[in-house]
Input
Amino acid sequence: MSFLTHNQTRQTDLGLLVLRIVGGGFMLTHGIPKLMKLLDGNMEFADPIGVGPTFSLILTVFAEVICAVFILVGYKTRLATIPLLVTMAVAAFIVHADDPWGRKEFGLLYFGIYLALLMMGGGRHSVDERLS
Output
């Protein structure tokens, strides 16, 4: 039995849609330039977790482009948040470890969005919902 009223459920689903649009759509503004870099063969990239710059770039592009698109449309939403949660934690706590709080803030804001989507899923206005 649900304790949420129909209006509360509708608002929750709209809120999840907003989180998906912001979290997926805005992340593409970071991921697409990295994808272009990868496609151009420019493999200069940070290696914050010690797997090599090329593999770090590939992992980041996967998270910031592929997973961001999945979140944007609401496909495999919970699963798609995991690489982005890792990427944002690495960005905030490893890449920007010595930077002031303001440099960590964007990564942590995205982390919060992805954590909420991991917990709640994509909502009614998602591909996942249409496929179920």
Remarks:
- Residues 47 and 53 are 5 Å apart (CA to CA).
- Helices lie at 6-39, 53-73, 77-95, 101-120, 127-131.
- The chain has a mean pLDDT of 94.
- The two ends are 20 Å apart (CA to CA).
